Amino acid sequence: MKNFNSGWYVVYTRSRYEKKICNQLTERGIEYFFPVNKILKVWSDRKKYMDAPLFPSYVFIYLKDIESMYKVLEIDGVVSYIRSGKEIVRVTEKVIDDLKLIFKNDKEISVSERYFESGQKVVIHHGPLTGLDCEIVECYGEHKILVRVSFLKRSIILSLLPEQLTPENRNAVPARTHLHQNAVCINF
Length: 188
Description:
188 residues, five-stranded antiparallel sheet, alpha+beta, Alpha-Beta Plaits, 3 helices, single chain, seven-stranded mixed sheet
């Protein structure tokens, strides 16, 4: 790698190795972000809430130097860094901050591989996601917020009240008049 830039990167892992890798990263002093979602598992004799990876087989890692990049590859279960062509994909700080902001919110979250068409641009002005730029899209006929994570080809979906939105363009029609069967998309 010719020009190394410190920042956030994504590693692809073996299936169900994410937590083991996170423990190894902690031991090596490497910062990571591994979003999990509480899901209800139902067996024939019991029910239990468990942490499930929001992006299975992916872990976000903050690399300070090229040596730590190679240290991560030595961890059992790490397959490779996510690449675009021959270049390792670097995730912007804004993407990580937006994801962390979403996970501070205790609302129900799900992930979708469904594609959503773009719509009106809005800004969240109230609540824990204040300041995020979004787009309204049709989504399951409910009020939802959709966060696209393009490089992982996934979308994060969670509940949102229409009162929390204002149009990005002040001349536009207020977002709440269009939200009766729409959702919001935050593009990364």
